[in-house]
Specification:
The longest helix is centred in the last third of the chain and has 22 residues, at 267-288. It contains 8 helices and 15 strands. The chain has 2 domains: 4-118, D-amino Acid Aminotransferase, Chain A, domain 1; 126-284, D-amino Acid Aminotransferase, Chain A, domain 2 (Alpha-Beta Barrel). A hairpin with a 2-residue loop joins strand 14 and strand 15. The chain has 289 residues and is α+β, with helices and mostly antiparallel strands. Helix 6 crosses helix 8. The structure holds pyridoxal-5'-phosphate (PLP). The site of pyridoxal-5'-phosphate (PLP) has 14 residues, from helix 6 and strand 13.
Length: 289
């Protein structure tokens, strides 16, 4: 089956989909994106992803190319036409095509591209889902809360992880503070048994999976702290896990080659994986009903 992409109002064969060489996304990284997970043909936490997209656009003063309802139907159409049951839909909106000049063009016609691709189904074996991480310095800019396509530091960090044979690179900021992963948020159960993740500010992405999990924790009266913690606290933690649209709740059992806790998936991580999987299942069942 051939893949289909949406490009500026048209559904085209993926291999023939093209944007201009003067697109500002290509020239300046002047654009934003979203990755919405698809589970059993249902978008998971779509409202959170679309709200974050709207915020990213607002922060960068890029006009939205269409309203929310139209956007949802494009995403759905691309997912359907690519027959994605489990996977992701990728959406990118840039400040459009203009003669190259750093400042915004006088008239902005945003470019929008949507693709979809299948991915693995929800894992059933939590031990098999566990992975390792390395730590690397955070060399990114001061507005990491905007989901911009400027991802070079993240690309370099992920490549370092790939070379080290592990899943993720955790970014370490000033004063040894743990920021987030190159494409994930970081959570720990610290050495005192407290569930913690870094507070939100301009220095990390407000993950939609993080937000969904925070909601599930509140519903289940499981307390957690949103504050800072440093590299030493990370390495002394009983449990470490990551969250993202594609990582879900991902146990991390080694960091920089050293085991976390006893080196096995922790009980709280396993419990939260179960809560998130049930949350995704419930959305798929509601959609199917
Ligand atoms: C830097 C960064 N942090 C965190 C996340 C997790 O966000 P989400 O849960 O919305 O996928 C991502 C996702 O791509 C990311 O790129």
């Amino acid at each position: 089956m051939s893949r289909i992409a949406y490009v500026n109002g048209r559904y085209v064969a993926h291999h023939a989909a093209m944007v201009s060489i003067e697109d500002r996304g290509y020239q300046f990284g002047d654009g934003v994106y979203e990755v919405v997970p698809i589970y059993r043909s249902t978008f998971i936490d779509a409202d959170l992803h679309l709200a974050r997209l709207a915020r990213s656009l607002r922060e960068l003063e890029i006009p939205a190319p269409m309203g929310d309802a139209a956007l949802r139907s494009v995403l759905m159409m691309v997912a359907r036409r690519n027959r994605v049951r489990d996977g992701i839909v990728y959406l990118q909106i840039t400040r459009g095509v203009a003669r190259r000049d750093h400042a915004f063009p006088a008239r902005i016609i945003p470019s929008m591209v949507v693709t979809a691709r299948p991915g693995p189904p929800m894992p059933t074996d939590i031990d098999g889902w566990a992975g390792g991480a390395i730590t690397v310095p955070d060399i990114r800019w001061g507005r990491c809360d905007i989901k911009s396509v400027n991802l070079l530091p993240n690309v370099l960090a992920k490549q370092a992880a790939r070379r080290a044979g592990v899943y993720e690179a955790i970014l370490i900021g000033p004063a040894d503070q743990v920021m987030e992963g190159s494409s994930t948020n970081v959570w720990i159960v610290d050495h005192d048994g407290v569930l913690r993740t870094r507070r939100l500010d301009h220095h990390i992405l407000p993950g939609c999976t993080r937000a969904a999990l925070a909601g599930l924790l509140a519903e289940n009266t499981i307390s957690f702290r949103e504050d800072g913690f440093d590299l030493a606290t990370l390495k002394r933690a009983r449990e470490v896990f990551l969250t993202s649209a594609t990582s879900l709740v991902k146990p991390i059992t080694t960091i920089d080659g050293q085991p976390i806790g006893n080196g096995a998936v922790g009980t709280i991580t396993a419990q939260l994986f179960g809560l998130f999987a049930a949350h995704a299942r419930a959305q798929a069942e509601q959609e199917a009903a």
